[in-house]
Amino acid sequence: MSIGDSLPPPPAPALDGVPFELWDESDFDQIVSDGFVSICGFGPLLSEREARSVFPNLINFTIARLSGFRAVFAHVSPAFFRLGIAKPETKEISSLSLEPCEGESVVVTTFQILRSDIPAFIETEHEFRFLAVSSVLSVFFRNECPIRASYSDEEYFQHRCKGDKGLYFERFGRYKIRRIWSDDILPCRAYLRQCVMAAEELNEIAYNSFLDHTFLGDRKTTIREYLSTKGLGILDEQPSDS
User: Fold this and answer.
1) What pTM was computed for the model?
2) Which residues contact 106 (CB under 8 A, 6 or more apart)?
3) What CA–CA distance (Å, rounded) separates 182 from 94?
4) 32-61 pLDDT, tens per residue?
């Protein structure tokens, strides 16, 4: 569907809309409606084309605004090492997550995926905390929607890996990743470029939201500031063949 450039102002978070964690697959059943689960997309999933490459059967793709959260490049993604696009020598290894932040809001997308797609979704996004939030405003969706939120290393190891060192090593240790969540790493260059292109493809509001409401791990430097200083030239680089 075509996405217009208009977007309502950020809604106030619902008084009874306190985010709650979805610990495992069965918890997602709390938010299933007619066999579908609504998903909150950010980063590359601001692009409908990219979202459909991941979820071919998605429906009701639209723009939305998430209140009380900000986007942060503050964790290492093993996918970047598998794809050969991580640059550990310069700490350009970070992916994107959302975290609570009073007074902030970010433009996101919402779309619905089949309940049967949830196991693959959890597996692909294993390092994230899944929070069901209701402070999302869109045409199609006004109830709980899971977002991929920040964890800490300790929480991830205990909750997602169930204290299993073998599982932790399989996902991260073999890439010599000693800490997942960190405030001194920088965005993976190829991934950041993909995020910016997706936001620009969606519309101007999403583009400016991404630049001004997405932060480095220091929680101070916006992506707009980063791309005009240390990250200058990233957007001009050619995509890798990986």
Assistant:
1) 0.88
2) 42, 65, 66, 69, 70, 71, 98, 209, 210, 213, 214
3) 9
4) 999 999 999 999 999 999 999 999 999 999
Cβ count near 1 (within 10 Å) = 10
In three-state secondary structure terms, 183 is: coil
Domain count, the chain: 1
Helix H or strand E segment including 79 = helix 78-83
Question: DSSP letters of 93-138?
Answer: EEEEEEEEEEEEEEEEEEEEEEGGGHHHHHHHTTTSEEEEE--EE-
Q: Per the domain annotation, does 82 fall within a domain?
A: yes
The maximal CA–CA distance of the chain, rounded, in angstroms, is 48
Domain that holds residue 56: 21-233
Q: Please write down the long-range contacts of 117-126, taking CB distance under 8 Å and 24 or more positions apart.
A: 117/37, 117/55, 117/57, 118/25, 118/28, 118/37, 119/25, 121/39, 122/24, 122/25, 124/54, 126/160, 126/171
Name the percent of the chain lying above pLDDT 90.
Answer: 80
Higher pLDDT residue, 90 or 145?
A: 90
Over residues 64-92, the pLDDT tens digits come to 999 899 999 999 999 999 999 999 999 99
List b or e across 82-100, with b for residues whose CB sees 16 or more CB atoms inside 10 angstroms.
eeebbeeeeebbbbbbbbe
Beta-carbon contacts of residue 6 (< 8 Å; ≥ 6 apart): 205
145 within some domain: yes
